[in-house]
Amino acid sequence: MAQLIIPDPSLQSSWLEGTAEFQGAHLDGAGAAGWALEDLRNPEAFAHFVDVLVKDALPGTARKPGYVPCTYLWMVDGGTFVGSLAIRHELNDYLLNEGGHIGYSVRPSARRRGHAAKALAGALPVARSLGIERVLLTCDDDNAGSRATIEKNGGQYEDTRKGKRRYWIATT
Q1: What is the pLDDT of residues 116-145, one digit of tens each?
Q2: Cα angle vertex 152, ends 148, 158, to 5°?
Q3: pTM (two decimals)
Q4: N or C: which terminus of the chain has fewer CB atoms within 10 Å of its end residue's CB?
Q5: What percent of the chain is helix, strand and coil (3-state, nearest 5)?
Q6: How far is it, in rounded angstroms, from Cα 34 to Cα 111?
């Protein structure tokens, strides 16, 4: 079963393979927006990408307007990258209504194996250590898999906004 790890440049090949499976679709929790997949084939560029992900957890790190500090983690199973997870340290208006504290993506070839549920369970103590007592998670109204993952981890449904179901989970 997959484990959560700090992003690691040694997983470049596996990360690229996993990311390619999304065929250009958005990877929630990956921190890859604005990074060209082709550029990340270069080992130095990939190492820089990983460094940026790791440093994004630090409060003083410069980030784009509207972005909040974020802890990025990767789901790895037997040395293979299977997904990404992001813990956003605070909520702005967008995250409160649509994005939530935690976002995750599992590569298509690794879905339906419990990776997301286990990763979310592992992320809750990390969120607690960041001082977040309750995390907000959202999913598309028609995403039954993500809804089941959230509910399996104790998610309490609050409402739906702009097609996003909103759930709260205590981190204690």
Answers
A1: 999 999 999 999 999 999 999 999 999 999
A2: 75
A3: 0.94
A4: C
A5: 35, 25, 35
A6: 25
